Structure prediction request, 246 residues.
Amino acid sequence: MKIILCGAGGRMGKVCSDIIASGFCGATLAAAVDLQKPELDCPAYTSLSEVTEDADILIDFSHHSATDSILSFAKARHLPVVIATTGQTDEEKDNIRAASADIPVFFSGNMSIGIALLISLAKKAASVFPDADVEIVETHHNRKLDVPSGTALMIAEGIREARGEGEFVIGRHTHGKRTEGEIGIHSLRLGNVVGVHEIRINTGTQTLTLKHEAHDRALFAEGALTAAAFLCEQKAGLWNVNDLFG
Prediction:
């Protein structure tokens, strides 16, 4: 599996390139792209438009603002693409969905099998306790840009799907009193925390707490590479972590 890696010079891109170098999933780097040309044992570029090497798939660990250009390149080359960034705007998400009509696209707020299981458990709990108060608390390092995390939104969307309704309340800046069925989401930014997601479900007589904690960013790179291997075997469509581990 030959990979074009975008964002190769960033924190996650470096982790991903190291894992590729270890032979994970039989992957190799066809080319690496970053605004600061990365120093790797493969062709390296500062712009995706410069890449001419043959590849099986593209993995993006750059920034959500590059989503449209990544999709355009992938469609032109008929390449599957794993979008491993978060924080996409509504317009960018619409473009992802549109591109998936032409090429296989893997897009998920989190690449972790543990998160997939957490969401499954949260949906089950929400169906068992449909009237319970639900609050999601996510914690990440102090350099993370998007708020709330893509994973927290995935969890909230799963709970809303299980209930059939539910307004998302991001923080409590304007009011403290809960409204019926709302799903609260809170964000903490601390030090070098990789990622912690906690769901508290309170019925008034009992509280169920579900929690996932990531200890190493390699978790997400391994997930992206596993997704890439999966996507290379798929037809055009939009895929996510639930498809990968379901």
